[in-house]
Write a structure and sequence with these properties.
Blueprint: E1 2-7, E2 14-18, E3 28-30, H1 31-34, E4 39-41, H2 48-52, H3 62-72, H4 74-78, E5 91-101, E6 111-128, E7 131-141, E8 147-149, H5 151-161, E9 170-179, E10 183-192, E11 207-217
Parallel strand pairs: 4-11, 7-9
Antiparallel strand pairs: 1-2, 3-8, 5-6, 6-7, 9-10, 10-11
Amino acid sequence: MVLRLGSAADGRGTAFAIVKVPDLRDFFLMHETVFSNEPEAFVPTGSETNLMAFRFLPKLTETSLVNLALASGVLGSALQIDDTSQVLVPATGQSIYSFSFQPHQSVQASLTHNRGQVEIDALFFSKRNGTECLFLVEAKTGGGRWSLAKHKLVYPLLALRGEIPRTIPIVPVYMHVERTHSEYRFHVAECELEVPAETLPVLCDLRAVSNRTLVLPSFSECN
């Protein structure tokens, strides 16, 4: 597995590490195992007014699909937030971060991501079980059998963990969206990774702990 590690030590170019492990799949969230639940029809809980703008775009970007999932209540329902009718406004962006981690349990080396760019697809606060949580979403689109490299979620998680009080839970979420002529299928997997205060987190220990597939009617007939 090749991992990008931010700026090179001499300040010129980008650093990379090559990590060899017995099973390369340890570095990926594989769709066939992560998204195991049967699809469920979903009736939007959000306001129809909030959904109208999505009807006029022939193709939605990954950012727009995150916004649609929030505006319709899909993400709120899949993640079991306390109030699925509330309007959730995500933040998105990219910045420069440094952090260290262990790539795999079988590899004892410590790797440092040094002042490298990390992109965040969507970030929003909401209460779940009465606790304010920060939800970190990585969104992808497309059909077929796919996977997500774990560092796509772990890098933003470690970047944010260094900026946010440890009393605030950070919930990493992988959302994969498929669109047909008649529907959107939102595959939503909630993940977890232990980020100890005293020892290094292990990148490959990221795992999905729950998943739902919610089906929303497409707006194609209005395009």
